[in-house]
Give the backbone structure.
Amino acid sequence: MPNLTMNELRETLTDVIKGVKANEITPASANAITNATGKYISTIKTEFEYMRLSGKSIDISSLMLPEEVKN
């Protein structure tokens, strides 16, 4: 599975909220999804912090949609 972009992640979380409100997703499933999302974001933050501390450049293009990446 390819990495999710931030927009895709927001869209997924929005769908989860809508699904819970519509009783299409159980609160337990929504909790599992949001928990995994938090871990995903924490991993990205850790990678960015490592790059910052090691003096490496930070490439966020993998977090954006292709049309958002400027060459």
The mean pLDDT is 83. DSSP finds two helices and no strands in the chain. Residues 24-52 form one domain.
